[in-house]
Amino acid sequence: MKITVYIATSLDGFIARPDGDIEWLHNPDYVLADGNDMGFGALMESIDYLVMGSGSYEKVRSFDIPWPYEKPVIVLSSRPQDIPAELASKVSQMAGDPAEIVQSLKAQGAQHIYLDGGKTVQDFLSAGLVSELIITQIPILLGEGIPLFGPLPADIHLSHQQTQSYANGMVQSHYLVR
Predict the structure, then answer these.
(1) Is the CB of residue 88 less than 8 Å from the CB of residue 103?
(2) 121: three-class secondary structure by DSSP
(3) What do you get for the CA distance between the two ends of the chain, in Å?
């Protein structure tokens, strides 16, 4: 199964401020004028499931917009999540270690997963389950916050596929996990 991480970080490697705030991502300077979505639309077309941690789920739910995902979303949490009736057909919850989760989704026919959320990404990387990383660096230094990466049981070697820079200062790099 292919598992893709597609995520933005500050230049100093944080995915959010210490309190989980991500408003810095919503700066109008970071919207590409030509409508280029930096491959996000193609990724969403290619996946079977979006798997995210409960913190990411709660953050998306806090946005003042309708639920943004058409693909099924799996929220990883060992505690019950509040999934409102209007999302019940789009959002479900799972618990367990990453390998169990992947096996369960494979049994349901999944071939490609989009993985989101700091701790979730760290856990799946540590378990050796991530296939590729697509990381967009935003030209801002936060100084502190929630890091994308954490301790690993061993080195993870990557194969660089492509890096693209954009006029607004964002830089997106694509790596395969070897």
Answers:
(1) no
(2) helix
(3) 14
Q: Say how far apart CA 15 and CA 149 lie, in whole Å.
A: 9
The SS3 of residue 44 is helix
Does this model's pTM top 0.90? My answer is yes
Answer for the pair 51, 113: CB distance below 8 angstroms, yes or no.
yes
Cα–Cα nearest to 22, from 35, 34, 7, 36 = 7
What is the SS3 assignment for 175?
strand
Counting residues of the chain whose pLDDT is more than 70, the rounded percentage is 99
Q: Of the CATH numbers 3.40.430.10, 1.10.10.10, 2.40.37.10, 3.30.230.10, which one belongs to the domain with range 2-177?
A: 3.40.430.10
Complete DSSP assignment for 115-134: EESHHHHHHHHHTT---EEE
Structure tokens belonging to residue 57: 């789920």
pLDDT per residue as tens digits for the range 3-57: 999 999 999 999 999 999 999 998 888 877 677 889 999 999 999 999 999 999 9
Q: What is the distance, to the nearest Å, from the Cα of residue 37 to the centroid of all Cα atoms in its chain?
A: 15
